[in-house]
Amino acid sequence: MVSAEMESLARTGGLGDVVEALSAHLARLGAHVLVVTPLYGVTRVPRGVSRWGGTVPVRVGWGEHDVRNVGVVELAPAEAGRLRVCLMDHPPLFGRDGIYGDSHGAFGDNELRFAVLSRAALEIAARAWGTVPDVIHAHDWHATLSVIYARLTMGKTWEKVPSVLTIHNLGFQGVLGQSALDPLSIPKGALHSGALAHQGNVNLMKGAITYAERVTTVSPTYAWEIQTPEGGFGLDAHLRANAHKVMGVRNGIDTLRFDPASDSHIALRFDATTAASGKAACKRALLTELGLDLDPSAPLFATVSRLTWQKGTDLLLALMPMLVEGGARVALVGQGDADLEQAVAGAAARFPGRVASRIAFDPLLARRVYAASDFFFVPSRYEPCGLTQMYAMRYGSVPIVTAVGGLKDTVEPARPAQESGTGIVAPFAGMVDLALACEDALALYKDPLAMRGLTQRAMGSDLSWTPSAGAYLSMYREIASR
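-> structure tokens emitted (482 positions)
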């Protein structure tokens, strides 16, 4: 596996969570998995690592001196030795205070950085195993060149290795000018054949879609959405042409690590049978921590999110007066666009004691929010899968989501009269639909029996990686056998 992120080492979002959990579950199913990811300046390096002797030569560029010698730091093998994680160490490109950028913005050489990662991952795999792998699995645009290099530039043996590309978010594609071909050692024939050419540029995502044996998305609905003009970000026609290789595999969550019955980071542990008392204790603790008014009769709405247009942060802010007038407390946690960060902080200042904000990326606070909240907002305009709604459900918080992507695939609309459903689903990411969803939530909170049933069904949902990891393993076996 090739990934720019891994949750316990360095991450900015769901990509790192998925790679870490999926690789571990595949190893538990018997697969031998090697994950290669960079050693950033911000990487949290655990104890028990070892450095490989010597360096691994990595060629990116056609020139005689376009070879970088990278170090390799390997974590202690996990899952009975079947899971290995190697950190590619090259300080000039990766030893910085950020993954994709810093306080000054995105790094200007990201295409070179991730080209080196992609080629290095293949070279490291060959050295680790003494042969080529059975399958290459590339995650998002940062790893697309591992698919392209294996097929086009590394010789006959690598050319035969099948690959899987997982699209976590098609909004990011790795679009470069044609002048990048030679510095990144991409054969010009791939551009002229149309494999990478898109709107006059080089599109790495398009190239990996062309050359991969399978293209997966992180939910079935998102696999359909990216083949439409509305969700395809310009690549919908190319994806429809390759529809025979596109499939959606829903992300899961690590239900062992995210378990309110054993989580030491929340005020009181609980399970589905003790959720009422456990969540009440967690709610009191979080309200106090955030400076919100204590009122047992007031529902707590919350969100933990990147503060962006995609995530519908502006829609949630527009709902704030309605929620406050309805007696709710609201907690907003996250980082993102500067104007939305300012607006979120402004909402807390406008409604003291009723609305609280934390402009931060804080995984432990996120767990406390999942455990304490009654309702959890994910009003996304598009959402490839989403993990926070599943974490919230695991901790007994009823999700309020829009019917897009993985939100549609993981949250069943509540039907209290039929005692079914796991959350509240708004048909569209618009103010009218979301306002009606809030009204349903406020009414539901006044019916303790219905609320208890919905909470228990949400907690009882199978959100684990087990079925999805099994689907990936079957896919690997199928394409490797060819």
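The chain has a mean pLDDT of 96.
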